[in-house]
Amino acid sequence: MAEKRIVRVGAVQIAPDLDSLEGTLTRVLAALDEAAGKGARFVVFPETFVPWYPYFSFVLPPVLTGAEHLRLYDNAVVVPGPVTDAVSAAARRLGVVVVLGVNERDHGSLYNTQLVFDADGSLMLKRRKITPTFHERMIWGQGDGAGLKAVDTAVGRVGALACWEHYNPLARYALMAQHEEIHVAQFPGSLVGPIFAEQIEVTIRHHALESGCFVVNSTGWLTDEQIARISPDEKLRKALTGGCMTAIISPEGSHVVPPLTSGEGILIADLDMGLITKRKRMMDSVGHYARPELLSLNLDNRPAAPMQQAAPFPANHGSASDEADGPGERIAAAADGASDQRVAVLRGAARRSEGRG
């Protein structure tokens, strides 16, 4: 019998500091210390927690979001940079695998980005949400298929998706096909109301069952004071309540510990990794239960780039006189050679035709 493997994990439900990147980062580092002090070796934070989720975009019309959007730019995370250095150092010091959601700034664009740090502090994965939802499309750019991958960490094979990416079955299948053992789900929390929490629960429990993996989900929290600050319109403040479902789900689709649906806190649970095989023995959706000859996924995992550069001409190619020629002469010579080849082919075809006649 294989030795029983237990992984203690922590899912953090927490409020950001809406005033500064540094304030929210301080909260992240304090939560890491607390979770590690409870024995956690894998810790998950909410979607785009650093510096904060753009709640303003959900309750303000686009014409009024400019100032807050620019403030988000000013406080966003550059990867790599001071924020990743600080989290990396904490992960290494504590021996903890960390999954952190950030607003990433890449020159003139922001992205909803998930960062996975291994227990030695190395950044194992930087992935961007492939399709921001509804109001989020005014805030973030789109990610690419390069981030749809599971990575090996000190606690096992980890995959991650953000929020409604879980409603894209092919995105989920891409991670399932890479045999993720722990799936990270991150949602904003404090949004839409209780129905959002119910939808999150259905979604993550279904993925755990279908993938045969554990799901660790973290949602954010807003205080009453923060809600009032985000929305001056009292009628809209209900849209910034509820929607919290910080939870840890087993491969059999059940809660490992009761979920956290209000307030701040850290869920701690021990994952019996043997339950993965127990589930997959019955239903392995990318193995013995799959029918790849009928249904399969085609994933383009190339990083998207706004510009492609042609490769330079090979060095030391051709004679010394050829190398002395400029690129224009070399191109003209190549074109002449191709033309001579076509003429030779046509002449040969004409002779064969005459012979048949």
From TrEMBL:
Residues 306-339 are annotated as: Disordered. Residues 7-273 form the CN hydrolase domain. One of its GO terms (molecular function) is nitrilase activity. InterPro entries: C-N_Hydrolase, C-N_Hydrolase_sf, Nitrilase, Nitrilase/CN_hydratase_CS, Nitrilases_CHs. It comes from the Bacteria. Residues 306-315 have a biased composition (Low complexity). Belongs to the carbon-nitrogen hydrolase superfamily. Nitrilase family. NCBIfam families: nitrile_sll0784 (TIGR04048). This is Nitrilase/cyanide hydratase and apolipoprotein N-acyltransferase.
